[in-house]
């Protein structure tokens, strides 16, 4: 008896039902990366800190020959400073847009989160960087708009006049 071939329809159907995302905690917040976000997790080892910059700007790393800015997500949201010696770097997007956030814990796999039917009030600190709300195991997860976040951080950096002195 020969095994029955798998039809492309059944493969597509099963792929549609399986949505694997990455989620992580920052303080009391549960954040979820948007679907299909390019990401890479690294142990925080060597970075180049820049003197006289805000505590939410960790510095830069050299990642495969490219300079990547690193932001402490918790510190930037007012949720405490993350110790880079015990943290993890979550690199997001492809070059030249790659930037990293420093996290205290490793992200976890979130399978098939469902869009929250009732939108809950989101914390003010997520204003402009949250693009949706999802439920996973009866817990609310906020979709983290990392591009909006990185853009906001660049603007904050300019406003604090924390540029490197000439």
Give a quick set of tags describing it.
166 residues; alpha+beta; six-stranded mixed beta sheet; five-stranded mixed beta sheet; 17% helix; 36% strand
Give me the secondary-structure topology.
Blueprint: H1 8-17, E1 20-26, E2 29-32, E3 39-43, E4 57-63, E5 66-72, H2 73-76, E6 88-92, E7 99-103, E8 108-111, E9 114-115, E10 130-136, E11 139-144, H3 146-159
Q: Strand pairing plus helix content: what structural class? A: alpha+beta
Helix content: 10-25%
State the order of secondary-structure elements, H for helix, E for strand.
HEEEEEHEEEEEEH
Rounded average pLDDT: 86
Q: Regions with pLDDT < 50 over 5+ consecutive residues? A: none
Q: Strands of the largest sheet, in order across it?
A: 8-1-2-11-10-9
- Cα gyration radius (Å): 19 Å
Strand content: 35-45%
Q: Terminal Cα separation, in Å?
A: 77 Å
- Give the CA-based shape: globular
Number of strands: 11
Could you characterize what this model shows?
The chain is of the alpha+beta class and 166 residues long. Helices cover 17% and strands 36% of the residues. A six-stranded mixed beta sheet has the order 8-1-2-11-10-9, with no helix packed on it. A five-stranded mixed beta sheet has the order 3-6-7-5-4. A hairpin with a 2-residue loop joins β10 and β11. The model has no long low-confidence stretch (mean pLDDT 86).
Short structural summary:
With about 170 residues, the protein is an alpha+beta fold.
